[in-house]
């Protein structure tokens, strides 16, 4: 049977681009023994599939996400996963409205269910909210790196990296004690079993918080952070920042660690605005202000108070701003500060931004300034400290000279802290949270103060072992040393190190240079190589995977959106993720308004090349590898000649960029050394070259008017196709290949 | 060829005991296919051998230490190494005097050589000073544990472990930054080569400090401690101790880390006695007071000042003592404080003493009190903190219930910090110390302030790999889990972890429970098992080897002198060390005065049993193992019936204790299941039993008068033998066996 490459149908800009790109892909890969198949996991598609019981037969569609969820567990999986919408409730509601207007008899979204029926509807819709696709598909660990042409391009066209001020006062501030780093305990389950998480107060009253199933050899860990120590730390850091006269910034990941991190964020509010709570504690409680939602929550609810109280509060806020250090701004024009909303400053993106900006941020008046980079918990803070200090000492990174840092990340099966949000608890009073195994043995036990943040997380044995294998293989393939960023001071990491010791020697380690180092030491080692222009593989846990695969790509090529992101599936297949930059709603806005799509499909090109190489291993013809290699060379030219889409109407857009990709690809195949392929693509290359002006003109002519595609979440696909393939000349050449 | 067990002839009490014990050993092992051979490595013997060119032919002896130095590199080595004198200069001078008086034409020791000839003499004598035996013989790593009967005895006859005060204020204080722990860098040499250690000042002037030969794959590391941070830390700790109103104590190891640690000790003097230096800095310099030698150095030199200055200084000292926290005392009767001499408080012995004493020390008035246990560098301080906090939380250890902690220590070839004293430097001004390889590449580089303590240390690849093997084998033999106490935050340990990953899987790890944890976590894990009565193996570097093999034996059986200490030699042989308690000069004093020797040969018994087991592997008859097992059972009875030597004349002494050992050993062999051995030893057992009273009486009768043996360092051996074998009845029974 021919191997099948699944191309996912998703949302917004990359969805639109698919209608232009996919025909080209089909054309170029035909006769090379591979199927290309489109599978719908768009928000609208998932709504329709999930709500099928409300829909008449003719409107129902298959649950393609469920299908892919099964496929990833089979060796034949080969999936190109484009970025889909992680829907917020407002997005869900809008999509439902749109589908209803198109004749889908869907129930409204019941925000506050009033009966069992509505409860059930809300539960069904809940399946379409948030990050519900990745956990289903990511049945493997993560292999992320910059493809050769992307790295080459950045070396030749370096992005701007601002030089830090001499004697920069910017620095990372972190806690010294009683944080997650210090309090971790870890347990390896000797069997499949159900663990109990229990709270016991000082009088011995117990409360079962949760039961958690674990597998044999699963590493189950837990830790806590003491809130009082955290707030003392904030107070000290705020004072120190004021003294240094720089900006105060706070970096957490409330989007992902969605239970613990908003509370850590909220404590910063409680400390920075302390006088507010001292003076107006009662009032703030009355109006339901929740500091964990940021100061925007106060702004939204302030009008529930009488005018004079409002005035008094605004006055106190002014005093606070005068007394405290200036805040790092998300948007200084609009007055949106770091403490405005918990989700605005996300550590993995925000610290690289500070680094790129010469260790500076924007202050309240739009001024660019040094800042205190506050990362409370030491677990990962110290590796950021290491790179910040390195830059202060050795200067800004030069994209034309630095090496590359690739990542092999432990991600499979909701690994580690990123799987912790349903196991995060706040003890209601002083007491203990412990984890009990089936024998009633306390395998983890912490003594806590009321309100402390306790969280548990785990990683499955199969995921860890696969991760070690992946690291070893990547090191062998690349010839780069691999560094396991593991800290033997952490109970959890000590258990991982044990697995590394067991697994790594299975993979020809005589021919691999490898190291096990704690994150800050690993950073130091890696940066030393990085500055010498050498490549290094970071083998990390799930959090550092997330952090480092933004950090290094942003330093190396200015963005993490151009990273090649592969999930080598545990069962042997491959998942190729594209578009770390999201699904770009602003691009769609512009497209609808003036029929110009500035989405860059580079990620899709790169993923496709990797996917085709896997297809070869899965049984496609030898030719597919030649086609993939030609594609990579085409991409190099695409970048080098700067044929990426431009921002303004009338300039080259996504469709024009696809034309160039096709042209380069055909030209590369016309000289690829395989006589059959050369014979097939030589005339194509010739036609494309001869018609270059004409095709571009046909595309350009279509632009400048609104594009009515009959919907945002669920457009009319005939219309989409019409708009996305405006050049008859180009279409004819491509369709002749399909 | 019959395997040979070498019994070392050494000094003082164990030397004397040998004359009683060795005939018994010869008798009991005869006909079991093993030679017992005595080799002289006593101080006197080493002097005679070293100075042979000054001696007439007939007085010369072979250099037996050199012989053993070669033997340890061969697989047939099987050596029982009794404790010898690590001679100080006064001891050397006394030994020379004694030999001269016996007719040895030796030159005097030239403390301050006046010409080349004297220089040469001093250099020759230098070979006899200090710890010169162990480095020659310890061609292997270390395997230390409590033998079964010793552990059993302690469980049945527990020593006193004082209960800590409720809410004990005792605690470990350590630095937070800029210590050795933080600043470490490490390098693995890719080949045999010579490294250069270079100091470069800020103007670029360079000075070669030392050249060091390293082997391929040797791990070479260096770190430094910032003196200003150290002194700030001392000031803070002293203040905090005063506030808590407890004793201030400082624990370093100036005897072993003989260059770096006296300076760390000296800085404590500089801070504690700050006012003294402020007021009398000039005077103290004039008289040559060196704080690194402790306050005793001031006392010794104070009379070089005029009377009134002396008085003023004494007055200031009084004021300082009134103002500062009370000091932990070495001897409160004599007024000797912790800060009196750098070698009085030695961390590996002193902290276990505090623990044993309920986390308390003695204060100036002889009062028992809580104390601040100051251990500046974090590298090992935090593991002490862990056990101290554990005791505060979970109570004092109960010797009848606790498990055992065995050690496999990386020791071979002057491993790690214990090989650092000739590579320790203090930069004369602000600048850099770096290590340069043969390509001129800086492989390690530190920026330092003038006076900082920089030290380098290394470990040979063969030593590390052997250590991992030893750990795996010990774990398999014992069934205990093995914990590698390695901190991935330390560059040096990160390199060791790499080796563990490479080596450990060669040794059947599916059947071994093993862990890699940073020291404080390893301590936590180990103590949890320890309190449950379980056994654990600590696989550690050289410093922790030294620390833990005092700490746990002292907790478990009240002393580290009863530890079984084996050096499995790299070449395959075995070195069995006895007498961690030293060579006991006080015992000799008593013996000379009243012919009562209270030395306990338990260490020799235990070492002999292990050595005989090795002899079996080396080709001795099967019977030797039966004899060894019988010896172990005899030792159990020896302990259980408390037949160890007593302190007072007229009570059982070393010779009487040997009688009981022989009696039990014979009785065990009389019922050992081997008919030949039973036939041989049944009559012996009978005779010994029947003559018990008579033999003990003969020994007792000899006591109470001085024993003139014709020398201290080099006695007349016929006389020694006469005194040490006073019972004709016993001698007859034993000699019949030989």
Features:
homodimer; 738 residues; alpha/beta; Isopropylmalate Dehydrogenase; 10-stranded mixed beta sheet; 4-stranded mixed beta sheet; 27 helices
Describe this structure in words.
- Chains A, B: It comes from Caminibacter mediatlanticus TB-2.
- Chains A, B: Its EC number is 1.1.1.42.
- The structure is a homodimer of 738-residue chains.
- In chain A, the strands form five sheets. The first copy, chain A, has a ten-stranded mixed beta sheet, with helices on both faces. In chain A, strands 5, 10, 13 and 14 form a four-stranded mixed beta sheet that branches.
- Helix content of chain A is 45%, strand content 16%.
- By secondary structure, chain A is α/β, with parallel strands linked by helices.
- Among the domains of chain A are: 4-139 and 575-737, no CATH class; 147-162 and 400-415 and 460-564, Isopropylmalate Dehydrogenase (3-Layer(aba) Sandwich).
- Chain A is globular and about 80 Å long.
- Chain A binds chain B through residues 176, 486-491, 493-495, 497-498, 500-502, 504-506, 509, 514-518, 520-521, and chain B through 176, 486-491, 493-495, 497-498, 500-502, 504-506, 509, 514-518, 520-521.
């Amino acid at each position: 049977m021919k191997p099948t490459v699944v191309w996912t149908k998703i949302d917004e800009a990359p969805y639109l681009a698919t209608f232009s790109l996919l025909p080209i892909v089909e054309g170029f890969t035909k006769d090379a023994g591979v199927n290309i198949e489109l599978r719908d996991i768009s928000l609208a598609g998932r709504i329709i599939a999930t709500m099928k019981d409300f829909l008449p037969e003719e409107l129902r569609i298959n649950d393609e996400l469920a299908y892919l969820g099964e496929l990833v567990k089979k060796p034949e999986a080969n999936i190109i996963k484009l970025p889909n919408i992680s829907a917020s409730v407002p997005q869900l509601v809008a999509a439902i409205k749109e589908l209803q207007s198109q004749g889908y008899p869907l129930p409204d979204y019941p925000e506050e269910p009033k009966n069992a029926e509505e409860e059930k509807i809300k539960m069904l819709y809940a399946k379409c909210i948030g990050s519900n696709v990745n956990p289903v598909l990511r049945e493997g660990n993560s292999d992320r790196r910059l493809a050769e042409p992307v790295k080459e391009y950045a070396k030749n066209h370096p992005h701007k990296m601002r030089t830090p001020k001499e004697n920069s006062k910017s620095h990372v501030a972190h806690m010294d004690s009683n944080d997650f780093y210090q309090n971790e305990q870890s347990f390896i389950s000797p069997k499949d079993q159900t663990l109990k998480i229990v709270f016991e107060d000082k009088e011995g009253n117990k409360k079962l918080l949760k039961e958690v199933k674990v597998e044999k050899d699963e590493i189950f860990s837990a830790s806590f952070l003491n809130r009082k120590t955290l707030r003392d730390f904030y107070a000290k850091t705020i004072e120190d920042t004021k003294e240094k006269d720089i900006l105060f910034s706070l970096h957490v990941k409330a989007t992902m660690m969605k239970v613990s991190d908003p509370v850590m964020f909220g404590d910063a509010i409680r400390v920075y605005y302390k006088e507010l709570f001292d003076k107006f504690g009662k009032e703030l409680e009355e109006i339901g202000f929740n500091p964990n939602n940021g100061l925007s929550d106060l702004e939204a609810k302030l009008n529930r108070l009488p005018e004079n109280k409002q005035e008094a509060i605004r006055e106190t806020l002014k005093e606070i701003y005068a007394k405290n250090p200036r805040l790092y701004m998300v948007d200084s024009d609009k007055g949106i500060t770091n403490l405005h909303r918990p989700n605005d400053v996300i550590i993995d993106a925000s610290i690289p931004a500070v680094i790129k900006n010469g260790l500076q941020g924007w202050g309240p008046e739009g001024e660019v300034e040094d800042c205190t980079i506050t990362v409370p918990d030491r677990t990962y803070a110290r590796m950021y400290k290491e790179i910040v200090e390195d830059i202060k000492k050795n200067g800004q990174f030069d994209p034309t000279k630095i090496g590359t840092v690739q990542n092999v990340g432990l991600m499979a099966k909701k690994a580690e802290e990123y799987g912790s949000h349903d196991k995060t608890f706040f003890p209601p009073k002083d007491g203990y949270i412990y984890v009990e195994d089936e024998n009633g043995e306390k395998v983890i036990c912490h003594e806590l103060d009321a309100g402390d943040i306790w969280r548990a997380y785990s990683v499955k044995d199969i995921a860890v072992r696969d991760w070690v294998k992946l690291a070893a293989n990547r090191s062998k393939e690349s010839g780069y040393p691999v560094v396991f960023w593991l800290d033997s001071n952490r109970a959890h990491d000590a258990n991982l190190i044990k697995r590394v010791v067991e697994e790594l020697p299975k993979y020809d380690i005589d021919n691999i240079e490898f190291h096990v180092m704690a994150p800050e030491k690993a950073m130091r080692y890696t940066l030393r190589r990085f500055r010498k222009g050498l490549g290094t593989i970071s083998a990390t846990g799930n959090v550092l995977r997330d952090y480092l695969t933004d950090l290094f790509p942003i330093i190396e090529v200015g963005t993490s959106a151009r990273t090649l992101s592969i999930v080598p599936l545990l069962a042997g297949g491959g998942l190729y993720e594209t578009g770390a930059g999201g699904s770009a709603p602003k691009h769609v806005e512009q497209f609808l308004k003036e029929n110009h799509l500035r989405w860059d499909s580079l990620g899709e090109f790169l993923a496709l090349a990797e996917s085709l190489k896997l297809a070869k291993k899965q049984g496609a013809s030898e030719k597919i590898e030649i086609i993939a290699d030609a594609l990579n060379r085409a991409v190099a030219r695409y970048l080098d000649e700067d044929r990426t889409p431009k921002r303004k109407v009338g300039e080259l857009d996504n469709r024009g960029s696809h034309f160039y990709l096709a042209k380069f690809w055909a030209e590369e195949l016309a000289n690829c050394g395989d006589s059959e392929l050369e014979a097939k693509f030589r005339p194509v290359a010739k036609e494309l070259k001869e018609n270059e002006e004409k095709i571009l003109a046909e595309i350009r002519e279509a632009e400048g008017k609104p594009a009515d595609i009959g919907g945002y979440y669920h457009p009319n696909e005939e219309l989409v196709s019409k708009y996305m393939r405006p050049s008859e000349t180009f279409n004819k050449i491509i369709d002749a290949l399909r």
